[in-house]
């Protein structure tokens, strides 16, 4: 959990919690009290911040500097109490989608950011080369439909975003630093319809997932899983996904709160139950695993 504390001079507060599904408290909840991580203070120059991602114990977040030509990206290790601020000249008054991940082939952590003018930049931690311009992209990876969409979802060595204008999933491979399109689940064919159908990308159980919120009806969670290994016969990543991966609806959860509420899944338990955050305050457990009609 990450929180910006106005009581503490707008410093960032980090928390963690443990979920014990074998110790149900009152028959409803089974999580322990959140514990604050005693990390070095990180004073934010702005009231706005966004989570970029977390990977292998490192946490990455950014602070946009609207009206200036600077933005700040922070890498934090809450265990060692170390953090690093990355500052670079950027374009004035532009939004950016971004992602943070680990490339196992090179043993490197990388930050990726994409400006709305389509410029793509990569920062490799420890390289000393700063932000590298690697070209432009034709994908429209903006966040006008859902404000939390810019955070890239790291799965299988690639960062993933939803391209809302064409309702498809775009991936950026951290090894070859190239984009490719991932096949979409059937639910994305519905498209965006005045808040009645909302979509988010998530990583659950090491799988890329699409969360479909059909407001006042249900929440469906679709997972992308590999079905066979035939990468040697595939010429492109798109072909590999088409031939070796498939989508399945793992959860279908009845909508039981207000219309404008949100069910946000954030983890799977060891027994395969999904944990959801509702109203940003409550943690709920759903047992309807692998039940498309449940």
From TrEMBL:
InterPro entries reported in the protein's UniProt record: F-box-assoc_dom_typ3, F-box-assoc_interact_dom, SCF_F-box_component
One Pfam family recorded for the sequence: FBA_3
Domain F-box associated beta-propeller type, first and last residues per copy: 38-231
NCBIfam families hit by this protein: F_box_assoc_1
Protein's name according to its UniProt entry: F-box associated domain
Species lineage: Eukaryota, Viridiplantae, Streptophyta, Embryophyta, Tracheophyta
């Amino acid at each position: 959990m990450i929180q910006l504390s106005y009581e503490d001079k707008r410093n960032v507060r980090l928390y963690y919690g443990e979920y014990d599904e074998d110790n149900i408290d009152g028959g409803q909840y089974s999580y322990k009290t959140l514990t604050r991580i005693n990390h070095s203070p990180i004073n934010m120059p702005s009231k706005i911040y966004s989570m970029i991602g977390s990977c292998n114990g490192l946490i990455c977040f950014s602070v946009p500097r609207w009206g200036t030509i600077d933005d700040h990206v922070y890498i934090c290790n809450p265990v060692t109490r170390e953090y690093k601020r990355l500052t670079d000249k950027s374009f004035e008054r532009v939004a950016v989608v971004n992602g943070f991940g680990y490339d196992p082939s090179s043993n490197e952590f990388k930050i990726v950011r994409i400006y709305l003018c389509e410029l793509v930049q990569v920062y490799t931690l420890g390289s000393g080369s700063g932000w590298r311009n690697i070209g432009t992209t034709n994908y429209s990876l903006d966040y006008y439909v859902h404000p939390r969409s810019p955070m890239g979802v790291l799965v299988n060595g690639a960062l993933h975003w939803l391209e809302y204008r064409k309702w498809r999933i775009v991936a950026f491979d951290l090894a070859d630093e190239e984009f490719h399109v991932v096949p979409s689940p059937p639910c994305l064919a519905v498209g965006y319809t005045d808040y009645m159908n909302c979509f988010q990308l998530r990583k659950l159980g090491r799988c890329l997932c699409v969360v479909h919120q059909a407001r006042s009806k249900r929440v469906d969670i679709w997972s992308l899983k590999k079905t066979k290994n035939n990468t040697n016969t595939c010429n492109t990543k798109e072909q590999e996904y088409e031939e070796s991966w498939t989508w399945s609806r793992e959860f279908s959860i009845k909508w039981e709160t207000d219309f404008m509420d949100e069910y946000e899944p954030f983890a799977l338990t060891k027994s395969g139950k999904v944990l959801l955050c509702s109203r940003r305050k409550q943690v709920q457990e759903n047992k309807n695993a692998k039940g498309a009609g449940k």
